């Protein structure tokens, strides 16, 4: 059964030190991350496979969803919970054909509502908009407004907000309609990784209170 994307969605930084990466992912999971996306653009296929296998197991043990960025075949090889696709990646249909109906497929929609509508029509399980704030991970990313989150609620699939998200600005995105917030540096670069994750994860509990 496929999971629903919600809560803290932690996106890993490029990290060649596998022990350090697994330690930090363990900390974000303890802090309440519901989703971990493995993002590594290096050409070291052996490293990427080894790290993805390790993180997939960590997520299974924690009851969290493990997503692979861009690479459908890697997601398939490590039995990830799904794959996340950008504009230059394979289509939703190609991912579904390789991964089957039991896996999640997410699509980056940047600041374009038409792209979100198209992704939903083609069977995407969730969509992502951003960048909502200046991002050190992608300093040249296009800007997105909270109006996109409100407009996309009519699509009835989970919405992820990404780009410069921190414990101090995530609440506004959640209030505007984000089902999950994707975070890189605000958790993985924090002195207290678990604590930073817990602060953001806790915002969803506050939002759900009557």
Roughly how much helix do the residues carry, as a percent range?
40-55%
Radius of gyration: 16 Å
Identify low-pLDDT runs: none
Strand element count = 8
The total number of structural domains is 1
Sheet with most strands: strand arrangement: 1-2-3-4-5-6-7-8
What does the model show?
The chain is an alpha/beta fold. It has one domain: TIM Barrel (Alpha-Beta Barrel), CATH 3.20.20. Helices cover 42% and strands 18% of the residues. It has nine helices and eight strands. An eight-stranded parallel beta barrel has the order 1-2-3-4-5-6-7-8, surrounded by seven helices. Helix 1 runs parallel beside helix 9 (193-208).
Record the SSE blueprint.
Blueprint: E1 7-11, H1 18-30, E2 35-38, H2 45-62, E3 65-69, H3 72-77, E4 82-85, H4 92-99, E5 104-110, H5 113-121, E6 126-129, H6 146-152, E7 159-162, H7 170-176, E8 180-183, H8 185-188, H9 193-208
Parallel strand pairs: 1-2, 1-8, 2-3, 3-4, 4-5, 5-6, 6-7, 7-8
List keywords for this structure.
210 residues, alpha/beta, TIM Barrel, 8-stranded parallel β-barrel, 8 strands, 42% helix
Précis, in short:
With about 210 residues, the chain is of the alpha/beta class. About 40% of the residues lie in helices and about 20% in strands.
